[in-house]
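Quick one:
INPUT:
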């Protein structure tokens, strides 16, 4: 049993929570993918979609590189220490929310003011039409309002997660994606869509309000802006903030470089590939990291418990993400065709998007490792390691995004992201070993090797199956995915992969106990 949010949390509850989060996350990602499919169907790779994608990316990227990556990451370790005194915890949460509101309102005003240069920087390709720039500027000024609601929503998520409440925070994306899809079903006006984007983030705040109240949060006007707790949070937040720049900055640079390819149409291909990549990779990586982070913060001073949990997390990520990564690389083209190739989205658009997605796919395991590694270092209040590794990864990604497209076209842009992400993960692992010697023993390396062999067998089988079923894309993707998953699980059972065997024992015990 483990003490978590003031309650005992055993393995059974952890599995149930993780299972719920996974199911809801999958549904949310499916809705997110459906949203992108509808956008591609309605607008194709037209200047309208190019403008919308750039306009929606800039506010969220600005948010990510300023405070987005730190709101929950810096909040949770400090708030977790205060949860035994609810009055003190509540006061800190109010002070923190005040600070977030000041920052997000300032960012919104700055974004609206400097929308023109921000858009011109992002869409700087020689063949980007003036009408695209004008539309993107107008849309971005509407969508900068998302930043305020995003900041509030993230703060509420941090509070609820610290109290062990993951159910409601898991459905937030489901709510916002559902609102956007409902709008697209009845209207295709791009300005209306921009307004609905802001409304969808406002609903993420509204949905959490009853639960925030239930757990005792009462907003209180702060007497001063910087308190000792806020000061500690800021000290932790600065290196976390810099380390969080890696992915959004490399993504923004990739959009800029994509504007030079294929008369600017590569912008849509790169952005749709990026979103599909996040959908596929994020389902399990985000669930595992978000579920484990509050607990990591609570056991940060116990090296033995930390090492045990780190081993479980690394093995879990490897077991789940490695086959997904290889499956994505093998099935990249049919997946993109199935997802986007309809309406105004042509076969050529599909080919570009698939090539970008496959290039990015090579970094999926490293991307997932980074999610866990960052949370580990944040929980022990050593955010400088992810900061330095993230900065180095950004530099590698940016340099390669300039070089590789000359030889590999849009595939090179995706590969630049993957190599930068992998570089970051390697540096994180090196520092993890320094902090926790022998965190991975020969037993863990053997488990990882078993997963690798099982994945290679699965990948080879899927490549054969896809060739047989290529006449029917839907059947090819679904059939090869199901058969590939079965092959992978069977081989892992034969190899007696530890993570899988423990889960099977849990299921067997639950069935015997009538659960």
């Amino acid at each position: 049993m483990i003490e978590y949010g003031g309650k005992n949390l055993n393995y059974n509850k952890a599995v149930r929570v993780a299972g719920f989060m996974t199911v809801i996350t999958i549904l949310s990602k499916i809705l997110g993918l459906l949203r992108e499919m509808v956008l591609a169907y309605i607008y194709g790779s037209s200047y309208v979609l190019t403008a919308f994608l750039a306009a929606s990316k800039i506010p969220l990227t600005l948010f990510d590189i300023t405070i987005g990556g730190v709101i929950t990451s810096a909040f949770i370790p400090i708030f977790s220490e205060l949860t035994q005194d609810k009055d003190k915890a509540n006061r800190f949460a109010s002070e923190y929310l005040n600070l977030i509101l000041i920052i997000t309102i300032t960012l919104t005003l700055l974004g609206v003011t400097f929308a023109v240069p921000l858009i011109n920087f992002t869409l700087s390709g020689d063949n980007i039409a003036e009408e695209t720039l004008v539309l993107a500027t107008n849309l971005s000024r509407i969508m900068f309002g998302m930043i305020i609601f995003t900041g509030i929503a993230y703060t509420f998520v941090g509070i609820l997660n610290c109290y062990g409440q993951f159910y409601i925070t898991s459905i937030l994306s489901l709510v916002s994606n559902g609102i956007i899809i409902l709008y697209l079903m009845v209207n295709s006006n791009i300005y209306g869509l921009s307004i609905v984007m802001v409304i969808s983030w406002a609903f993420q705040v509204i949905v959490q309000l009853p639960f925030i109240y239930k757990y005792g949060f009462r907003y209180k006007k702060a007497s001063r802006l910087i308190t000792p707790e806020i000061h500690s949070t800021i000290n932790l937040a600065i290196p976390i903030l810099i380390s969080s720049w890696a992915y959004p900055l490399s993504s923004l640079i990739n959009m800029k470089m994509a504007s030079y390819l294929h008369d600017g149409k590569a912008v849509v291909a790169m952005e749709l590939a990026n979103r599909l990549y996040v959908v596929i990779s994020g389902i399990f990586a985000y669930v595992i990291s978000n579920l484990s982070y509050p607990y990591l913060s609570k056991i940060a001073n116990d090296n033995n418990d930390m090492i045990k949990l780190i081993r479980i997390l690394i093995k879990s990520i490897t077991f789940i993400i490695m086959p997904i990564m290889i499956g994505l690389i093998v099935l990249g083209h049919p997946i993109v065709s199935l997802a986007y190739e309809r309406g105004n989205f042509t076969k050529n658009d599909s080919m570009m998007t698939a090539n970008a997605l496959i290039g990015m796919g090579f970094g999926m395991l490293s991307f997932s490792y980074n999610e866990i590694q960052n949370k580990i270092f944040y929980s022990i209040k050593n955010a400088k390691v992810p900061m330095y590794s993230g900065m180095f990864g950004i530099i590698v990604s940016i340099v390669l995004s300039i070089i590789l497209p000359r030889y590999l076209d849009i595939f090179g842009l995706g590969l630049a992201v993957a190599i930068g992400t992998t570089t970051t993960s390697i540096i994180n692992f090196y520092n993890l070993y320094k902090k926790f010697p022998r965190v991975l023993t020969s037993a863990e390396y053997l488990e990882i090797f078993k997963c690798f062999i099982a994945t290679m067998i699965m990948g080879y089988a899927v490549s054969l199956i896809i060739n047989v079923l290529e006449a029917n894309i839907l059947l090819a993707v679904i059939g090869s995915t199901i058969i590939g998953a079965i092959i992978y699980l069977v081989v892992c059972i034969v190899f007696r992969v530890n993570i899988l065997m423990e889960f099977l024992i849990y299921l067997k015990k639950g069935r015997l106990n009538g659960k």
